[in-house]
Specification:
By secondary structure, the protein is mainly alpha-helical. It has 16 helices and two strands. It has helices at residues 2-15, 36-56, 62-73, 77-93, 96-109, 111-120, 131-162, 176-187, 195-200, 206-215, 223-226, 259-273, 281-288, 291-309, 314-325, 336-341; strands at 20-21, 192-193. α4 (77-93) crosses α10 (206-215). It is elongated and about 70 Å long.
Length: 345
């Protein structure tokens, strides 16, 4: 796996080219002809790409460490939250029974009444046939994918200990208050998402892969470990090398505090099935704006900023990344990883 993640990381480095601007959260409709959810989900994909990069090899210098501080520190809260919600929605939309129920209700009641229900009843889509099964698929994939964030956190945390035995690791952190102020400012603005991630999430084989993943989400590796390339030369084939996945796990319990978040995923998934995001952009955008995950990620980011600001040595900066920008295994305190892993319990 370490060899494969090195390959992925190298490809991701190449992929950071020709950026496409993504609006903060769901504030602006997707461009004409694009699908809103895949375009928004690309922000979550890019975060997972950063996780892949930091797992690919040990940090070897203060410069590499500081680059990771900048990378994770500059993540925009609304973009990441909306991207994560959109990714879960696309997964839910792959359930055949759920998709058929959505289309049947649309035919019976009409598009206007459907969209009004999505807007006024955040749990409406979940009450449709296949809704709970679709939610279970999203929960299972999320649990599997967030576990790799914990593994990355543990990997970086272990490095923070070994750094205390090398000169650059135990050196004083360079102007941590200035670093913290810089990433606070950077994270307040929406970020361009690398063109490769945007194109990969527009690829024709994306739905095929995600349908397989949603049906059988438990694998030895997550989808992000399995993607062997996200190179600019062939972003449309990024998912083509994925192998079949194995049987789904037992039913997961939804975290009561994330009930509204899960309902938003299902409502968005139903809108995705109906391809309603262009004609009803306001409803799609407002559904993406999840206060629970946004509030949690914002809290985690603020703790990360505080951790960086008070860092005394380089090894303490590594600890900040591990515990706040990623997640430590079984740690449910606010971190970017835990804000997503807490969807189920």
């Amino acid at each position: 796996m370490r060899t494969q993640t090195r390959i992925i990381a190298a490809a991701l480095v190449v992929a950071i080219a020709a950026p496409i601007a993504v609006s903060q959260g769901p504030a602006t409709p997707a461009a004409e002809g694009t699908r809103a959810l895949p375009s928004t989900a690309a922000s979550y994909a890019e975060y997972q790409g950063h996780v892949t990069q930091i797992m690919s090899k040990e940090l070897g210098s203060a410069a590499e460490l500081n680059k990771q501080v900048q990378t994770f520190g500059s993540t925009n809260v609304n973009q990441l939250s909306s991207g994560w919600i959109s990714y879960g929605a696309i997964l839910a939309a792959q359930n055949p029974e759920f998709a058929e129920s959505v289309r049947r209700a649309d035919a019976d009641y009409g598009r206007e009444r459907m969209m009004l229900a999505f807007k006024n009843e955040i749990n409406y889509a979940r009450t449709l046939g296949g809704g709970e099964a679709a939610l279970q698929a999203a929960l299972a994939v999320n649990a599997h994918e967030t576990s790799r964030i914990s593994r990355a956190g543990a990997f970086v945390r272990e490095q923070s200990y070994t750094m205390q035995n090398v000169a650059w690791g135990k050196a004083k952190a360079l102007d941590p208050k200035k670093t913290a102020a810089g990433i606070v400012q950077a994270s307040s603005q929406p970020k361009p998402v690398a063109d490769a991630f945007q194109q990969a999430f527009s690829a024709p084989d994306l739905n095929v892969v995600l349908a397989s993943l949603a049906a059988s989400p438990t694998t030895s590796q997550s989808i992000w470990d399995k993607v062997s390339t996200l190179a600019v030369s062939a972003p449309g084939n990024a998912f083509s090398s994925l192998s079949p996945v194995v049987a789904a796990p037992a039913t997961l319990q939804l975290n009561p505090g994330y009930e509204g978040t899960a309902n938003r995923m299902l409502n968005l998934g139903a809108q995705h099935v109906l391809m309603a995001e262009q004609a009803y952009a306001d409803t799609t955008q407002s559904t993406m704006a999840d206060p629970v995950s946004r509030g949690c990620i914002q809290s985690a980011k603020e703790q990360f900023f505080g951790c960086v600001s008070s860092a005394t040595h380089n090894y303490t900066l590594a600890g900040c990344i591990a515990t706040k920008a990623l997640q430590m295994p079984k740690d449910r305190t606010d971190s970017i990883g835990s804000c997503m892993s807490k969807l189920s319990q």
